[in-house]
Amino acid sequence: MSSDPPRTRIQRRNRRAILEAALAVFSQHGFRGATLDQIAAEAGLSKPNLLYYFPSKEAIHETLLAGLLETWLDPLRALDPAGDPIEEILGYVRRKLAMSRDFPRESRLFANEILQGAPRIGPTLDGELKSLVDEKAAVIAGWSAAGRIADVDPWHLIFSIWALTQHYADFDVQVRAVLGPDRGDPFDGAERHLVTLFTRLLTP
């Protein structure tokens, strides 16, 4: 049980403001390019006030990443071994694409951490993330072995889903520039394309 005293309403509000500001600054500038001064200014707080809540830039970044990883893993956790195999995998594709649409800054924060060699979340990648992927890969392999989906490498299938959905968050500016203003929301076309692509790939 934590011995920390409960936070006041103002303290909770300020912590949320700092984390929201840090998300904006980190997703734009990366960890190395971000500064505490930038985060404090974005949050509307003084730097000493910010340091009352978080002792360092690293502490803010780690808090953001910890919360993000929980959210990031939820769509894969929801893949149901008892469900229809193709529909379960397509459901995962849709959930990952929705996360790119709804949480683009979080996606870029995660991508920046990975590009730097994952110095702050390496143990989680080797631990919780690997265990979950291995668990779901075994489910997908079982579906393949039973002939319920085509013969696919389950790990590389999951990597492909990550790449093809997170691209729309991490390269949003490029996607919208290439499509042009007349094409509307790119996520509508992306979902139709990815559902068709993975349905053809997975159908025995």
TrEMBL record:
Keyword DNA-binding: yes
Protein name, per record: TetR family transcriptional regulator
Keywords attached to this entry: DNA-binding
DNA-binding feature ranges: 35-54
Membrane spanning residue stretches: none
A Pfam family hit: TetR_C_3
Domain HTH tetR-type as annotated: residue spans: 12-72
InterPro entries tied to this protein: Homeodomain-like_sf, HTH-type_TetR-like_transc_reg, HTH_TetR, Tet_transcr_reg_TetR-rel_C_sf, Tscrpt_reg_YcdC_C
Gene3D superfamilies in alphabetical order: Homeodomain-like, Tetracycline Repressor, domain 2
PROSITE patterns: HTH_TETR_2
Any one GO BP annotation for this protein: negative regulation of DNA-templated transcription
